[in-house]
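The protein record quoted in full:
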Amino acid sequence: MVEWIITDGLTDYPQALAFMEQRVNAIIAGTADECIWLLEHPPLYTAGTSAKRADLIAPNRFAVYDARRGGEYTYHGPGQRVVYVMLDVGRRGHDLRRFVQDLESWVIGTLDTFNVKGEIRAGRVGVWVQRPEKPRHADGSLAEDKIAAIGIRMRKWVSFHGLSINVDPDLGHFDGIVPCGIRDHGVTSLVDLGLPVSMGDLDVALRQTFAANMSEARIQT
């Protein structure tokens, strides 16, 4: 069983870290179900294990936290749905790469319910959308913006952290970092793409697309 939790309002980042620590330890011990937690944070930056100090452009703009997840710097704030996945990856095949691919597929499937085509790019973590209305790059390729970020931490094959999808955050807040270390592409959101999507709409889509994309069939009982 996977427990779904939706928290209204803004959740402090240290509070979220403490909850994940406790829940992951309980899942490992076999005393709690897997959990997916949907929430929003106040404006803040987090540093992953690969974060480069030079990519923190405005260190005094918002609080900066050491997330101890994979990846580089990312932003969280109001209007962005954060999805923390505390799942038993061991029961899903002991394949971290496949698990991350499943997360990407879940985001893409969720975006598809809003007729948004999310795509993966080699060497660029997260989910991207093409922006044909924007000027092309110097090499003639289409402009692309990031709409979702993914960063995972593992403990005894149980996952921490997860993903974030931009619904309607202040996109200017991303200017204080180089998001995920990528300088040549921008950031977008569902509302920025012209879609009047609410947080509740996204939550419904996430639940509807979860089982089809998160390899439930591979769970070993």
Remarks:
- The longest helix spans residues 13-29.
